[in-house]
Amino acid sequence: MIAARHSKARILKTEIGFTLIEFLVVIAIIAILAALLLPALSKAKATGQSTACLSNLKQLQAGYLMYPDDNAGYLPVDKAITVALGDIANQAGSWVIGNAQLDANPTNIQNGTIFRYVGALDVYHCPADKSTVTKQPGLTRLRSYSLSGWLNCYFTAYGEDLDPNTFAQDQVKLSTVRRPANVFAFIDEHEQSIGPGQFLVGQPSWALLNPQPDEWWSFPADRHGQGCNLSFLDGHVEHWRWRAPKIYESFNQNPNPGGDLADLQRLQEVTPHDKLR
Questions:
Q1: What global pTM score does this model have?
Q2: 143 and 8: one domain?
Q3: pLDDT digits (tens, 9 = 90+) for 229-251
Q4: Which of 30, 44, 64, 90 has the most C-beta neighbours closer than 10 Å?
């Protein structure tokens, strides 16, 4: 009887236990599965963030287009000047106020002229933008998007004084834009480039002041799979994948030959210049 019990115990131990080699095999299988699944999960997360970003731009654009209905057809003003310590900030009366890198509270967004049409702070921030407020590393920025500098834009900084009187291509009224589906409005701006609410991009008419119009003044983001998201004046939104990664160096940097230059020229084509009007 005692021998039978010992024999049964040995059988149970053999049935419920497994060896070190078997344990290592299980761990190896789990590691392989994780290696296969993590890229897919990461890609799914990135896709979700880009989709959410597009939704933000859609809502932001819808709010922007409500403004002219209440203001005799005029587009929201976008006015930036140099302020203390050389920083550039949007002024009162603009679609948004302040500087995205410096603003630590939502007041400058809420006091912008289109906020009452948008009504939600989250709409101004891309979920993939992890940048923080200057000198406050624990505080995520509130705004990731800027508006085309060719839409009722006034810019006084870096020795430039640009406004609708300087360039006829700077559109003041929505009715003057003949092909709104071909003109971008809001764009997902690079976290090192963003500041006031303006995205400045050269176009052929800038050759009057600058013999090299092909320059990146403001710089687009590439946080969505080497691409960014844009809205257009007819209300639709698009995801653009860049041919070259976007590495910020400075304001008005020269594009690298090849893909980077092609990306800049693609963006120039959706500004209100003579070729489209």
A1: 0.83
A2: no
A3: 999 999 999 999 999 999 999 88
A4: 90
